[in-house]
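User: two proteins, same treatment. go.

Assistant:
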Amino acid sequence: AALQESGVDCTFLHFRCIIIVYVLRDVLDCVGYTNVSIIAADGDWSIAAAMLENPCLNDAVEVIGVHYPGTQTVKEALLTEKKLWSSEDYSTFNDDIGAGCWACILNQNYVNGRMTSTISWNLIASYYDNLPFGRDGLMTAEEPWSGHYVVESPIWMTAHTTQFTQPGWFYLQTVGNLTHGGSYVALTDSKGNLTIIIETMTHNHSQCIRPPLPHFDVSPQNATFQLIGYFAHLTDLQVWYSKLDFETKKDTLFQRSSPVNVYNGSFTLKLDVDEVYTITTVKTGQRGSYPEPPKSRRFPKNYSDDFTVDNPPFSEAPYFADQTGVFEYFRNSTDNGPHAFTLRQVVPERPVTWVRDADQTISIIGDYNLNVSCDVLIETPITGGVFVAARVDQGGGSVREAKGVFYWIYANGTYKVTNDIGGQRVLAEGLSGTREGVWYTLTLSVKGYLATGMLNGYPLWKNAVVLEPKNGWAALGTLSFEYAQFDHFEVNAE
């Protein structure tokens, strides 16, 4: 819909998708990866109709994958007789309502949509909280400087399924909705094991971020299950239980209960609202344990990094979060002095993007009103430029609208101070004498409504008035997708 609103020919894009699948299948087969399957098309269900019309496309696709299906499928997808996956789902704040969302869709994606896989975006919310989709993971670990993490309630909703099934198990067809609301699914390994997962999440306590759920009612009930065939001979089953208690705020999360007795293949459960049960033959379930996490604390008020890491275990520097472009450790072979090790922006041309990213590259860090200092090296003659920034207020898919205090120098010998990453709102500008291939030290100080900038320790501009934003991240970046280097980065909080 967004593409159509922007005037993009979606029929052409759909045709391109089909061609890409063809080519990808041929390439994989030619290099010997015949056992690698293609999941398509990670959007809506529209590829299903194309697969019914095109046998070659149908043969190339192993799994139809969709994003945020709202537990529903379409008849064309069922007619393909392909595996159906919710290849991206959840994306919801990980409080108890998020846990209710996750418990609900883990069951109902199969009950309503016959989807046999549901993949959470994302697994661990490990990025700055104020970025888009903050805490939209099954657990939270967003303070690498403190080591603090939180095992959120969605983790335990996951365990109700994943601890009692394995890849290769399959859903039984006798699944569905409970009489007074809620759902149940049953899976087996065809070796005598059985796992039943029951959820009774109420509408207001299971709202996913997208799409909105239609209204439904859930009330307390007794539910009787009749086992048939091989399972009719079972005499008892293991029970694991969770209760999201929105009244007392005292949840019960993934606790082992007394086994349920089975009489003549039948057992009855007394179900309340906002509960999850796992009834299973599998006896290996365990809640597990983890050490007490380190205490939460804010980003250090004073932080510096000279990027001197000879053999880094990762290409990214700690605590920086690239929003556009890629910033990596770099061994500067042309400088054996103070800038032998640097951080470098390494993407020289604009990539194909998922959202409308900024035309500039930017990596953010910290969470205070900060004074920022950094050595910078422009590598692109004439048109090149770099910046340091403070109080940056947007990232992710909104980075193009980011405001803050951006202090730019350019290879053409000028500087500019802007209130936005796009450079439209100019606070100060003039001559700087800067050029490519020379290291400069930029220092940006922001206090209250006033900002001041220095170049190599000397004032270049001062008292630029900054009315908003009042806080945000520090950042560094480039004017375009160009090579540039950064060194001796330092932030100091007020």
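Protein 2:
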Amino acid sequence: MLVMVILKGPVAISFNGNKEPAAYAEMVSMGGITKQVKRDLIATLGKILEAKLSIPRARFFLKVYDTTAAGNSSKL
């Protein structure tokens, strides 16, 4: 498994007009992201953001994209 993390901050984020601390993340996978894996990722990342950066779990959005689910037939 290969993981790449890019952390940018401070970046102004507004959820529903509220500018309290928040986070947005995107994860791109080439297979293996089931509903349970998504739930586990959201829970784990939410705990880390809350403990280390004081960002409440309700202020965290994770976008998960599985390239294999899109029918991508590229053989690069």
